[in-house]
Amino acid sequence: MTALPPVAEVALAAVMVLSVLRAFFGRPPGESDLFAAGAWMLAGVVLLATVVLAGEAARPRDLLCAAAVEAVCVAGWWLRGREDDGGKDDDDGGNVPVEPPPDWDEFDRLRAGWSQPPTPVA
Alpha helices, DSSP H only, in the chain? Predict the structure, then answer.
């Protein structure tokens, strides 16, 4: 068999570049999942190992290598999780209510009342 046509090679390279960019710079998943990441990494390693079994056929080797890159990208994506960006959710649009800082003057006034002896209730 022959290699992929040039147009297909360019398209495959573009898909792989976009996958790498999405995995490392795109929006992360809600939380990390080590099990899913491990499964995808194992799939990538197995796909890469099958390249050796593909023999001289160029087309299956190219497609298996591309599938291995895609699997490793997904594994990296699963490892990122939300805690990488400080746990901030990008969907809030900046409309998250912010609590005002504590009023320390009021706290000091209330605390001053704690040191006074209790007054009996009639």
Answer: 6-25, 34-53, 58-80, 104-114
Cα separation values, 32 from 19, 72, 76, 90, 114, Å: 18, 15, 10, 16, 47
Other beta carbons less than 10 A from residue 72's beta carbon: 21
Which one-letter amino acid corresponds to residue 56? Answer: E
| Residue-wise pLDDT tens digits, 83-108 | 544 545 555 556 777 888 888 899 88
Structure tokens at 71: 């699997």
Angle (CA) 70-73-74 rounded to 5° is: 90
Compute the distance between CA of residue 71 and CA of residue 75 in angstroms, rounded to an integer.
6
